[in-house]
Amino acid sequence: MRKQTNQDFITIIRHVNERSLPLCLSSLKLQTKNIELINETPFIKAISEAFLTASKNEQKFVLVVDGDIILYHDAIKLIQEITFKKIKQKPNLAKISFMVFDKIRGKIKAGCHVFPSHYTSMLYEFYNKIDYNPSDFRPESGNFRIFKNQYNLDSYDYIETAVGVHDYEQSYQHIYVKHLNRVVKSAPLNNELLISYLKELTAANPGDHDYAIALEGCKDGFTSDSVFTDARQYPVIDHLLGKYKISEKEPLKEPEVIEKVAYYSHLSLGR
């Protein structure tokens, strides 16, 4: 039997030009060569386009990574080893999801999934038929459960080991929007706990305004009736930048990308 290798995978980055995208891409280029980028919005469009791209390639598996993730230096090797093992245990396994370490929430399930390629055409057709609903905060996971049940596939596994960091080096605008969305979607008790925690982080890290902007997003989420799932419609936050006397973060330059990838990729948060 042929040994399975890196060539059995194609990696697709779904992005909306996040500030962290160069870090995501660089962290992957150090580990693999088969990389494609999908820049689509709203998110449901990015999901379907990633499956369409994967369906046109010959690799056995597709690794889908969101542009707000920076992978650890050994992530690809670990992801492949776990994928090969899990597929042997459950041949009908349709999705394997990996955890990442979020800057604010710690270890979470977000934006790093493997799909066997023989499902990607079906997945494209399935997601491509879904009408865009701007209030659907989780268009990927919720609809995947419908797909899995429709085709009687095995439940997918969440792998507890974190394979990278999430929402580090993100723009203030993205941080604000994500936390506003989270409050609109989540239960009141969870929101109260998150806000309390963010107040502590803000007080403990006065030089890092990510926490203060996240807190502002949470507060505004209590009075918002909708979420923002289309990057073209993200709200302007100049009033908050003025409140804290800060400017939006500049795009990362190449020397910064090299330095930051070297740092983040060798962390062991969530492991």
Number of DSSP strands? Answer: 7
What's the pLDDT, averaged over the residues? Answer: 92
* Strand fraction: 15-25%
Could you tell me the radius of gyration in angstroms? 19 Å
The main sheet orders its strands as: 2-1-3-6-5-7-4
How is this structure best described in words?
Helix content is 44%, strand content 18%. The chain is of the alpha/beta class and 271 residues long. The chain has 2 domains: 161 residues, Spore Coat Polysaccharide Biosynthesis Protein SpsA, Chain A, CATH 3.90.550; 77 residues, no CATH class. The chain has a 7-stranded mixed sheet with strand order 2-1-3-6-5-7-4, with helices on both faces. A hairpin with a 3-residue loop joins strand 5 and strand 6. The longest helix is centred in the last third of the chain and has 17 residues. The radius of gyration is 19 Å and the shape is globular. It starts with 8 loop residues before the first strand and ends in a 7-residue tail after the last helix.
Please provide a brief summary of the model.
This protein is α/β, with parallel strands linked by helices and 271 residues long. The protein folds into two domains: 6-166, Spore Coat Polysaccharide Biosynthesis Protein SpsA, Chain A, CATH 3.90.550; 172-248, no CATH class.
